[in-house]
Amino acid sequence: MNNGYFGQQPIIVVPEGTLREQGKNAQKSNIAAAIIVADAVRTTLGPKGMDKMLVDAMGDIVITNDGVTILEEMEIQHPAAKMVVEVAKTQDSEVGDGTTTAAILTGELLKKAEILLEQKIHPTIITQGYRMAKIKALELLNSIAMDVTIKDKDTLISIAKTSMTGKYSEIGKEHLADIAVDAILQVASKENGEVIIDMDQIKIEKKVGGSIDDTKFISGLILDKDRVHNAMPTQVKDAKILLLNAAIEVKDTETDAQIRITDPSQLQAYVDQEETMLKNMVQKVIDSGANVLFCQKGIDDLAQYYLSKAGIFAARRLKKSDMDSLSKATDGNVLTSLDDIKSSDFGHAGLVEEKKVGGEAMIFVEKCKDPKAVSILIRGGTAHVIDEIERAMKDALGGVSSSISVGKVVAGGGASECEVAKALRAYADKIGGREQLAINAFADAIEVIPKTLSENAGIDSIDVLVELRQRHDKGDIWAGIDVFKNKVIDMHKEGVLEPLKIKTQAISSASEATEMILRIDDVISASRLGGGHAPDMGGMPPGMGGMGM
After folding, report:
1. What b-and-e string marks burial along 39-62, b requiring 16 or more CB atoms within 10 Å of the CB?
2. Which of 66, 97, 300, 444 is catalytic?
């Protein structure tokens, strides 16, 4: 690469094979790549959005309309396009829902910015205007949002239903929304006046078979384990549960050691001693009064036999996360030794039972008193169906959780976006200067949500936007598009509600990613060590991980 001449001699500052794009070419390339990614998920938005079938190099199939899942499976290589994926990932980790909205909004902000760039508006002016618009939009959303608390169960169910609408799980959304809200309310706890929700304490298990209606909420825990011995009871009522992080087996020596036996009677004495040690261990469990044992480590075969003779239900080699969840669900303590077992350390459950689910044994720890760890068992006809139900359930759980944590909700159907756009246009008139153009562009971009909702439902988006603007100008702040009735209605009265955090996070992330992309005017792509080629910087890269998109 030449960086100027002194006489006729070029000055080489980067290795041969380096690709470089500068100025408008770099901006156009980055914007084009990001827009392509955003457009890839655009048709999945809303109740009438379509699904994508993603096929990887191994032939594995994923069928979904979940924005972040689609973008992750596409294996995107272009650096600017990856920033759109990061926006969706951030939305997923922070809120759990609204990933498609965040990606689409990023793409639309870049489209509007490209128009301004062609009008010779400097990128710094555009980013400054976008920043001002973002701050104003967040202020407005906070001012119009409605309060919600952990006691407003009907409102929380509406939020869960809105999250599931448009996904495959919609056919059972009434049932699934109830489960999602019950799970969140069960694990929620108050600390220093704040509601704390640990999403890790909602365990989701999937088993192929049955239908969506067979999906269950368990007020306790499901373990993908079975009893260690067939002679043990399959069901224990009024369970006194011992949680043990210690092996019930004879330990090997920590150093290499040999035992020399010269007489057969010595061998028998050695075996008898091992058996006596195991008997003593089991006796400690029996004497404690526990009738269920969950062990994080191993249980010797002989110990299993003695436990079964005593009528104790036992499972072994549980994951640490399962032991922690059992502790929270049953209010028991995980012990690291069989010595000094106290009844106060026991966990309690109304029922511990081994059941066959989808042809496989699972242990159900149910009827726990005020458990702080719960389970959801998802059933469906095929693996693809239950995977999509799981994604929808996680969206619903995330939506309900973020609504409670922030304590604010807004109406869906594009209502809040239209209200923000109206306020931004009024704000732009007061600002003046070239930033005014960027603020108006931001207002136009945010209307991509109601526009896309109507397009995906086969409704004329221009007519919808005109009517929405008229309704909002008259003060109807919750007027949105009902894609089932094909008309503009009050979405709050219709019960279409979304967490405020979905909107604020999407606007913040999309705006910040757009500002960063617009400020890039030089892309230098060095070749890899070992003679590899620099990645393709023009538009979307050819390698999409086998995706036909």
Report:
1. ebbbbbbbbbbebbebeeeeeeeb
2. 66
CA 549/CA 545 separation, integer angstroms: 10
The pLDDT tens digits of the residues spanning 62-80 come to: 888 888 888 888 888 888 8
Q: What percentage of the chain exceeds 70 in pLDDT? A: 86
Measured CA to CA, the distance from residue 297 to residue 322 in angstroms comes to 12
- Hey, what are 237's tokens? 């009522």
The catalytically annotated residue of 322, 395, 444, 452 is 395
Could you tell me the pLDDT band of residue 542, with boundaries at 50, 70 and 90?
A: very low
Residue 491's pLDDT is 92
3-state secondary structure 464-508: HHHHHHHHHHCCCCCEEEECCCCEEEEHHHHCCEEEHHHHHHHHH
**pLDDT score at 541:** 43
* 521 catalytic residue (yes or no): no
State yes or no: is 66 an active-site residue. yes
In sign, the C-alpha dihedral spanning 154, 155, 160, 162 is positive
d(CA 250, CA 126): 71
Q: What is the DSSP letter of 238?
A: E
Across the chain, mean pLDDT equals: 85
99 is catalytic: yes
Of 234, 236, 240, 224, nearest in space to 351 by CA? 236
- What pLDDT digit, counting tens, does each position of 139-165 carry? 999 999 999 988 899 999 999 999 888
**Which CATH architecture best describes the domain 221-370?**
3-Layer(bba) Sandwich (3.50)
H-only helix segments in 349-490? 383-406, 415-431, 435-446, 448-456, 461-473
Q: Could you state, in order of their start, the residue ranges of all structural domains in the chain? A: 19-146+410-518, 221-370
Q: Each residue of 444-488: pLDDT tens digit?
A: 999 999 999 999 989 998 999 999 999 999 999 999 999 888 889
Alpha carbon of 446 to those of 107, 212, 452, 532: distances in Å?
11, 35, 11, 41
**What is the value of pTM for the model shown?**
0.80
User: Three-state DSSP class for 414?
Assistant: coil
Is 100 annotated in the active site?
yes
Under CATH, which number does the domain 19-146+410-518 receive?
A: 1.10.560.10
Q: Is the pLDDT of residue 22 over 80?
A: no
User: Cβ distance 25 to 19 under 8 Å?
Assistant: no
Q: What is the DSSP letter of 535?
A: P
Q: Of the residues 44, 64, 90, 99, which is catalytic?
A: 99
Q: How far apart are CA 147 and CA 151, in angstroms?
A: 11
Annotated catalytic residue within 64, 100, 101, 514 = 100
The span from the CA of 88 to the CA of 451, in Å, is: 20
Whether pLDDT at 57 is above 80: no
